[in-house]
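In this section we walk through a basic example: taking a raw amino acid sequence and producing a predicted 3D structure, encoded as discrete structure tokens. The instruction is simple. Fold the sequence below.
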Amino acid sequence: MSYFAHLECSRCAQTYEPNVPQNLCTKCGKPLFPRYALDKIAQTWDKSALLEREPSMWRYAELLPVIDSRHIVSLNESMTPLLPIQRLAAFLGLEALWVKDESRLPTGSFKARGLAMAVSKAKELGLTKLAIPSAGNAATALSSYAAQAGMEAHIFMPQDAPPFNRNTCQLAGAHVTFIDGLITDAGKIVAERKEAEGWFDVSTLKEPYRVEGKKTMGLEIAEQFDWELPDVIIYPTGGGTGIVGMWKAFQELETIGWIEEKRPRMISVQAAGCAPIVKAWQEGATEAEPWANAHTSAAGLRVPHAVGDFLILDAIYQSDGAAIAVTDAEIREAMGTLATHEGILACPEGAATVAGLCKLVAAGEIQPENRVVLFNTGGYQV
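The resulting token sequence is shown next.
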């Protein structure tokens, strides 16, 4: 049984039918969110039902937008482990530290969650041609899931995207265009050509379903912590769908009665060479200005402007969180720190959370007794 009720604008609350392909709100241009009959879910769905389900992101079907499970396009998106990080915790003077290791997912990164959901819903809606601008991992994920679904994937990525992502997209048979510029420039090309080409745009938060895939990170954390959330979540932020999705997950779980009102402090980590959310937070702004001359070796953090900036900042403000910038040198050092202390080979974006944690501990922003979760969003790639 599906509890997916309608789509709703995250800013102006305009509602839309769920059985029609939608991008941004036609009234105010902001992201749309799937909404569910949470009152009915609360009456009919019990936590004990999870005990009999496969350990994958699809175990939370009642809170997901795919109506008919036959449309699910999957490469086995298993639950990712919450690894206790004891040696690094002791080094930093912390009592409880974990890494949520998303590198175990298909295609090697957390992007598998969002694109598995977006492609599945696209299949259910009868779409056949999907287009995306990407700095790397999202392109690999879309290429792989579109191949599994028998759809066309049209990829636009910067010339200097990581070789792994360039190669995997081409291996999966995607139509790949490399551009001189950033992900925002790639996004402009998709926007300009999608109508004439018949593409459906699956850019970050410009369609309603990738956020639902990312939401499952929050659902998993809640379950892995036995429905009592950690004190702090530190997350690497480019487009920010992960923070937005987890915050939505926590709201829905509270509404159906599975968690209390307590929330983790949501900490956004960005690269010093591209830190629009950090700047906005420091200024107390509710939206972020586009970042000029964006540069960082962490490709996933090189997002000069996020369409969901106001949603990221909302989660930070509402949780008494923070936003912090780290340099590329600090990211490289953190990759070594995590590997030498714990044997975890993290991507630069994941290592950025370690660099951010070190700064926050030194500044007294995180206390020894705080239960802290870091996100490693992908594996180390040469």
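Looking at the output, two observations stand out. Residues 155 and 280 are 30 Å apart (CA to CA). The first helix runs from residue 38 to 44. In the next section we compare this with other chains.
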